[in-house]
Amino acid sequence: MAVFALALLLLAFTGSSSGTWCVCKDGSDTILQKTLDYACGAGADCNPLHQNGPCFQPNTVRAHCNYAVNSYFQRKGQAQGSCDFAGTATVTASDPSTAGCSYPASARYAS
C-alpha cells in the first residue's frame, strides 16, 4: 500500500509539470545573432522563423534567438548543457510562446 501511495504522489508531482524551455539571456544583438546562427546551423528547426513563417513575428533578434535555442534544446532531448550556448541562454519554466508561435516543450514536438 505504501508503494502505491508513493507512486501516486510521484505522479501528482510529475503530472503538474508544464514544461521546460530554453531562452536567450539579455545581450547585444550581435551576441544573440551569433547564438541564433549557431543553433540554426547545429540542428535547430529554424524554418518557422523565415519570413511569413508562424514565428517570424516579432521580427527581433532576441525573439528569433529564443525560438532557435529552444528548438535545439528540445531536439537534444533537454540534455545537460544543451541550453548554455557559451552562457548566452538559460532554462526556464515559463512558456515563451507568443501569439501564433508555439514553442515546443519536449523533443516530441520539436521536429
Automatic annotation (TrEMBL):
SMART domains found in the cross-reference section: X8
The organism's place on the tree of life at top rank: Eukaryota
A GO CC term attached to the entry: side of membrane
Cell inner membrane as UniProt keyword: no
Chief location: membrane
Cellular compartment(s): Cell membrane
Pfam families in alphabetical order: X8
Assigned keywords, A-Z: Cell membrane, Disulfide bond, Glycoprotein, GPI-anchor, Lipoprotein, Membrane, Signal
Keyword Hydrolase: no
The X8 domain, residue ranges: 20-103
Cited InterPro entries: X8, X8_dom_prot
Topology class, membrane: Lipid-anchor; GPI-anchor
Endpoints of the signal sequence: 1-19
UniProt protein name: Glucan endo-1,3-beta-glucosidase-like protein 2
Organism: Cajanus cajan
Source taxonomy: Eukaryota, Viridiplantae, Streptophyta, Embryophyta, Tracheophyta
